[in-house]
Amino acid sequence: MSVHLLIGGAPEAGKSVALHSVVAGLMLDPDTDAVMIDGKEGVELAVWEKVAHGGIRREIDDATAGLSWARARMDERYALMSASGLRKITPGMGHGPLAVVIDELAAFTLHPDKKKRAAFLDGLHDLGARGRAAAVRVIAATQKPGSDVIPTYIRDLFDTRWALRCSTREASDTVLGSGWAARGVDASTIPLGSAGVGYLLAGASGPVRVKGFYLSDERLSDLAAYAANLRAVSW
What we know:
This protein is an alpha/beta fold. The chain has helices spanning 15-27, 60-84, 106-109, 114-130, 152-155, 169-176, 217-234, and strands spanning 5-8, 33-38, 56-57, 98-103, 136-142, 160-164, 197-201, 208-211.
C-alpha cells in the first residue's frame, strides 16, 4: 500500500473482503498502532477491538476523539523528526505505521450535526494532509465516495484507490479518478457476485484488477488474537 487508501463500491461488492485484506496485513505487524472507526455500529471492525486504541469508535464524538489521538501521535513523530534532523519516519526510529481505519465513512461525513461533522472532517483532513512523512496511513471505505460524501479536498488526499464493483461508469471514475472508464478501466463491468474484485490504483502504472483475500469470521478472529498476542510479547 502506498500511503492513504480509499475503498469504494456498490453494496455487496465485497467492501469487507477488501478492507480486511488490508487491515489484517497491517495489524500483523506488532509495531503498527491503530485507531478503528466503524460507522456500521462497530460490527465490521469489532474483531480488532484488542489491538485498537480505545476500542472501536462508533459514535461521531468518539470517532473525532480517535482522530485527535492519532493527530497527537503524529505531532509527536514530527517533533522527533525535527529533533533528529530527518524529514520522515524511517525504520529503526521506534515507530511503525499509524493506521487510521474508517469503515462506512459516510456515517460521519454526513452526520446531521454540522459542528460535529466539521470537527471530524478537520481531523481527517489534517491526518491525510500531514500524515505521509509521519507514517500515518488512512484507510477509508464507503459505498459512495462522491463529493457529497467525501469533500474533494479530502478525497484528493487518497493516493491509492480500490474501486470494487460499481453501479455506473461515473461511480467507477469517482473512486479511481476521472477518465479511467473511458480508457477501459471501468468497475461497473465487474460481474455481480465477484466479492472483493476491483481495480486497484497504486502508483504510476495505472489501475490493475485484483481480488481481496476472503477471511471468514473464524479466521479473522484467529488473526486478531494472534495480532494481540504479538503486541503483548513485543510490549
